[in-house]
Amino acid sequence: MAKGEAAEERKAGRLIRRLLFLFVLIGGLGAWVGLTGYYQLNIGEEAVILRVGAFQRIENTPGPKLHLPYPLEERRIVKTQEILRQEFGDVARPDQTKAESVMQTGDNAIVLLEFVVRYRIADPRLNVFRVADPEAMVRDAAQAAMREVVARKDIDGVLAGERYAVQSEADALLAEVLAQYETGIEVTQVELLEVQPPTEVRGAFDDVVAANQDKNRQENEARAYENQVKPRAEATATELIESAEAYKQSRIAEAEGENAKFLSLLTEYRKAPQITRTRLYLETMEEVLSKSETIIVDPGSVVPYLPLDRAARRKEDR
Known about the structure:
Elements: H1 2-37, E1 38-41, E2 45-51, E3 54-59, E4 63-66, E5 73-79, E6 84-88, H2 98-101, E7 102-104, E8 110-121, H3 124-130, H4 134-152, H5 155-161, H6 163-180, E9 185-196, H7 202-271, H8 273-289, H9 308-317
Antiparallel strand pairs: 1-4, 2-3, 2-5, 6-8, 7-8, 8-9
């Protein structure tokens, strides 16, 4: 009986050890999966999942996620909506940032230039597999792009007149370089913070900038005066042209009327020359004498008369 009980106890012990081993194994496996396979994605983040080092998929929906435990699968979480920023140069301390600040223009002048680049990771897969150091990549490409653009401009343009053009061209060139190298980086803005000539010639360039500002101010005032005077001049010119056109049309109509009248008289004259000649003479004398004063003269003496026609005209004028 004692031997049977001892055998049963040994069986129970082995079963308990096996169960404990199984629990430990399951617990270890769960911990392994939980520690290496479970993760949380926040808004604006994407996870690049690698399976045995090769690209498998991209997860981009926020929330808890799970993948096979390491080393079967691993993840690289990338913040794709975060705007990153890098500053270049410091014109206040050109000696400490000389490699970044000092640039040569197209007319062989030297300027101290400070600018900032804002960018984000647009393609996490390219960023993970193509770029070992994204910050260094952006830094080198941005300096190269800005130097190339500044080298196309003269110093006056870089200091004042073409600052926005420098920003725009540098932005486009930097984006082109990053796309060419398949970095997955998107440039959101290139902004010039400060542009100054070297300290030794800064006073002279300040005078040039002030002169350019006066020039622009005077040009703006001239355009404003032009915009004020030009509409009035155009209105006056239009009025004169319309008045001349109306006078032209009236004279043409009058000439055409006189021509028609003459042709009508010519037709009548050809039918009865003597009668037409007499009628024209009488009509002409009637028109002339109606404008003349009437004087009655008695042979041998001058007879006083009452100028009734003049009195009638004065009455009409009143």
